[in-house]
Amino acid sequence: MNLDNFLGAFDLWRFSAGLGLFLFAMSLIEGSLTELAGRHLKRLLRVYTRTPLRGIMLGTLATSILQSSSIVTLMIISFVGAGVIEMRSALGVIFGSNLGTTFTGWIVTFIGFEFKIQSFAYPLIGIGTILALALPKGSKGKTFFSFLSAIGILFMGLDFMKEAMSGVSASLDVSTLHGFGGFAYFIFGFIFTAITQSSSATMMTTLTALNAGIINLPGAAALIIGADLGTTITGLLAGLGAKPGKKQTSLAHFLFNVGTDTLALLLLSPLLKFVIYVFGANDPLYSLVLFHSSFNFLGILLFLPFTKQFSQLLEKWVPEKNHRLTKYIHKVSHTMPEAAIDALEKDFKLALDDLLTTNLEAFTIKRSRIDFLKSYEHLKEKLSEILSYILLVNEQKVNKIDSKRLGQFLRAIDHLSRSAKSAKDIHHNMKSIENSAKHEFMAIQKDFLEGIERTYQLIDEVRGLDNSSHKFEEILELKKLNSTDHDTHQKGIYEFYKSKNLSELDIATFLNINREIYASTDALLMGLKDLILPLEKAEEI
To answer: Would the pTM count as exceeding 0.85?
Structure first.
């Protein structure tokens, strides 16, 4: 074995193309999952990964079917990146995928089957791409078939990388390691698998070499341990430059394998003897695959009791970059509903302040040193944090009163989000009118802004009232005022159109602005009534 033979066997451009397809597919998969991950899918995944044991079963089954721990690991990293499941829920699947990948060895040993990635990649790319292009934009079907196509591209990328290194396996003679200690075989297995991106390929090569008598059983066992660690490189690649959740998951896969493989190396000789003794497997091929399954099963037993501590350690090592925007809820455990609701009341008050400010910025009434879009994104993140916390509290055993209050909070989140979205959608129109030299435009905008300022000032006054009956009456009056303002502005726009000869495009723009101002204010008032009124009063509005 020499460097010239190695370089001659290595297809650099095919490997580069495979890596590019792999990374591109990862991006497509995450985007598709984000769109597909509606409430039902998220709930399904949370249910099946709610406990580490369920996750292990799911990971083992999925990897056994796909015969690739890399694919399952990449998929679960994508789920975490897309926000479908949390990193803690992904750990069980990561553990199970290691056990599932040992089934490849069993298949090779029993029937000599060699897994062909193309049998999955070609149909997925062909059918997925054609149907994704045929279906209308924005449909769930289009997103689903794009997801299937991305899976096929990912398979194709991995296959390209394997093919680029196919000649390397012929140029590297493992018999050169004969006489070296088990650690040399371990290093060889790690490097070979890291390059080929397939522990299954390493397993097949090792079984062939073991069957031919090129290496002995202890050497083959050490080589397979190295392959187990080498396969984590795929996941580490997926975590490069990714969000903290994805980094935590890929690091979890790596550390789990480091712990499992270290244990296997230390127990290599006694574990091999134990496997042969207990299972009566005198054939070295069966002994090897039994050894592979056994040390991965031991790794699961080692990590399973400490899953919670392991996830906490990962979160400490790879913390979230963005600081939490809420002030109170993260100081109170969601397992204490009464205290949690008090904290939610306080954070909702601050979120409502932010919403009023952000909407006024959108309407160009209030100025801020911070870019408006940043203010809008911060508000969305804050509401998202509150929503996640409400869902956690809702999973606890709560009394009827608290349950109703949590229901009001959920409705308030929806209303406040829609209020901000409607205001944001016309921000660019308001800026354009502000910079316009047309007197007619400025006159119409002035009417808009005066109405908004008056309404928002009254909303502030309502929030300061103590009597719930007075709040109820004032909110009703504000809803009537909002409707009156909408109708008055609409009538004024038509009058301007007739007298000032505004274009059809101009009138369409102003009518849209008027409609969105009404929608934003109405949603704000609906959110406000759920936050400051008792349920019985709120339901009357």
So the answer is: no
